[in-house]
């Protein structure tokens, strides 16, 4: 780098909701730390967000179910639990402040088998430990009071859960960043990076960018971006496609809120569930299928590099050996609407196979460690002049504002901006 001052203090990779929430937190701090014309105080941070695609929320953020999670599921004291609890209320407040349609609609978690009752007890205890104050245990008849078409042995009513369209949230965040003097550059895919004396130079498809420091929130490409930047990721991103259907016809009016099964603690996914969107459409799913492309939104999607990385990974083979029975069930429900309908009828018996219409898919960036274990908590690592978010699965969208503030605080300290 030349003797010129780098034009940006921090460059962020990724205009998904975590990257934009982080940039928003940094520009908020910058707005509060400005200096006057005489140079007193602290200069505002110069922030740019670099996005490979031609729009924000192009991948995980724009393909999720739109749930504002309560914090019920996560281990007390974990980063997930802490940031989800804080982020849930921050998200509700943000939506209210910027007139983004949202609803605190609540959800039921329903036990349909006797062996799920102890797990429901554990969930209730975990939710209370995470600060949920509105939890209520329901018996079979009380379930019908909340969801007239649902059945089960017992359930938890979780009123703190909500719904929103995260694409609208992300667009609002991008506008705020620009209004505060930051930049959001689309079509700027990172292709290389080099360090120089006073910062870094990022080569992108939109031109070179110079900055003092880097924060990478690259989602489906988090491990590759870290490696490209010389930071050993220590994990491999494995893409899981989650396929959704929507309820149509007579089944479309069967669900009032959100209805979830009791999750299997051996698996990081929540099971096939019912989600009423902010537009009133009820989606069911997703299942969880190992995808052969990181942007594999259709069954036939295939990427040679992504598939080779999966096939050549001992960690993936260890994962497959551990979960092959669960995986086969997911595959069956992916290809068979009757099988999906049977799973749904365990909770809502009136669902008809004929009323399941395909409704798109999302791809989850799941970090896998070398042992084949699925990384459960958020994982954020630091390097020289860098911070990399290497694992930010659900509830990252819910927690995004708190994740952004958390990363901004770490960046301020790590990059010497305090």
Annotate the secondary structure layout.
Layout: E1 8-13, H1 17-32, E2 47-50, E3 67-68, H2 79-97, E4 102-103, E5 107-111, H3 117-129, E6 136-138, H4 140-146, E7 154-158, E8 162-164, H5 166-179, E9 183-185, E10 190-196, E11 199-204, E12 209-216, H6 222-228, E13 236-247, E14 258-261, E15 273-276, E16 282-285, E17 289-290, H7 304-311, H8 314-335, H9 337-345, E18 356-368, E19 379-383, E20 386-391, H10 396-414
Parallel strand pairs: 1-2, 1-12, 2-9, 5-14, 12-20
Antiparallel strand pairs: 3-8, 4-8, 5-7, 6-7, 10-11, 11-12, 13-16, 13-17, 13-18, 14-15, 15-16, 19-20
Description:
There is one protein chain. The protein is of the alpha+beta class. Among the domains are: 8-59 and 167-234 and 377-414, 3-Layer(bba) Sandwich (FAD/NAD(P)-binding domain), CATH 3.50.50.60; 236-248 and 274-374, no CATH class. It contains 10 helices and 20 strands. Strand 1 (8-13), helix 1 and strand 2 (47-50) form a beta-alpha-beta unit. The longest helix has 22 residues, at 314-335. It starts with 7 loop residues before the first strand and ends with a helix.
């Amino acid at each position: 780098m030349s003797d010129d001052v780098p034009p940006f203090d921090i460059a962020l990779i990724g205009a998904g909701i975590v990257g934009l929430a982080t940039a928003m937190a940094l520009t908020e701090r910058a707005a509060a730390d400005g200096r006057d014309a005489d140079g007193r105080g602290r200069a505002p941070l110069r922030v740019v967000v670099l996005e490979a695609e031609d729009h924000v929320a192009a991948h995980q953020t724009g393909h999720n179910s739109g749930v504002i999670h309560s914090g019920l599921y996560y281990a007390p004291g974990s980063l997930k639990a802490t940031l989800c609890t804080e982020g849930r209320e921050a998200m509700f407040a943000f939506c209210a402040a910027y007139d983004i349609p949202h609803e605190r609609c609540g959800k039921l978690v329903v036990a349909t088998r006797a062996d799920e009752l102890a797990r429901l007890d554990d969930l209730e205890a975990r939710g209370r430990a995470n600060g949920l104050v509105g939890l209520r245990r329901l018996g079979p008849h009380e379930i019908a009071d909340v969801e007239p078409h649902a059945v089960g042995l017992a359930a938890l009513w979780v009123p703190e859960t909500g719904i929103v369209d995260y694409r609208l949230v992300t667009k609002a965040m991008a506008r705020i960043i620009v209004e505060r003097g930051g930049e959001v550059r689309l079509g700027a895919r990172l292709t290389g990076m080099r360090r120089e004396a006073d910062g870094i130079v990022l080569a992108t498809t939109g031109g070179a960018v110079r900055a003092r420091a880097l924060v990478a929130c690259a989602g489906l490409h988090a491990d590759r971006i870290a490696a490209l930047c010389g930071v050993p990721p220590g994990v491999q991103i494995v893409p899981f496609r989650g396929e959704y259907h929507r309820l149509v016809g007579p089944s479309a009016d069967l669900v009032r809120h959100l209805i979830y099964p009791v999750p299997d603690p051996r698996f990081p996914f929540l099971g096939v569930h019912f989600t009423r969107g902010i537009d009133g459409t009820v989606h069911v799913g997703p299942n969880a299928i190992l995808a052969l492309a990181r942007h594999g939104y259709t069954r036939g999607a295939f990427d040679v590099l992504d598939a080779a990385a999966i096939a050549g990974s001992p960690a993936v083979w260890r994962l497959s050996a551990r979960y092959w029975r669960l995986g086969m069930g997911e595959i069956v429900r992916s290809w068979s609407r009757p099988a999906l309908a049977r799973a749904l009828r365990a909770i809502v018996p009136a669902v008809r196979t004929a009323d399941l219409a395909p409704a798109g898919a999302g791809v989850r960036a799941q970090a896998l460690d070398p042992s084949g274990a699925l990384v459960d908590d958020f994982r954020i690592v630091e390097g020289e002049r860098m911070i990399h978010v290497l694992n930010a699965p659900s509830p990252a969208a819910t927690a995004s504002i708190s994740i952004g503030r958390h990363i901004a605080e770490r960046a301020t300290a790590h990059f010497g901006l305090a």
